[in-house]
Design goal:
Blueprint: H1 5-10, E1 21-22, E2 28-31, E3 36-41, E4 44-45, E5 53-54
Length: 65
């Protein structure tokens, strides 16, 4: 059963209170501001800040030199 879209629209990051984006596979919510991902386990989001994981940088910085 997919997550309720009405609920998804009102969720906010527990750390910064900013917007969250649900991953296409519905495995986690991501906060672009905090660079944190909050896992969804058995269709239940885990918004405990200490259990969130860091989002890997999408674009690597060019080497300096």
């Amino acid at each position: 059963m997919p997550l309720n879209r009405d609920l998804i629209d009102i969720l906010a990051c527990p750390k910064c209170k900013g917007p969250l984006k649900l991953r296409p596979d519905e495995s986690a919510f991501e906060c672009a501001t905090c660079k944190l991902a909050y896992a969804v386990v058995d269709e239940i989001p885990n918004f405990i800040i200490e259990e969130a994981t860091e989002i890997a940088q999408q674009i690597a910085e060019p080497p300096r030199g």
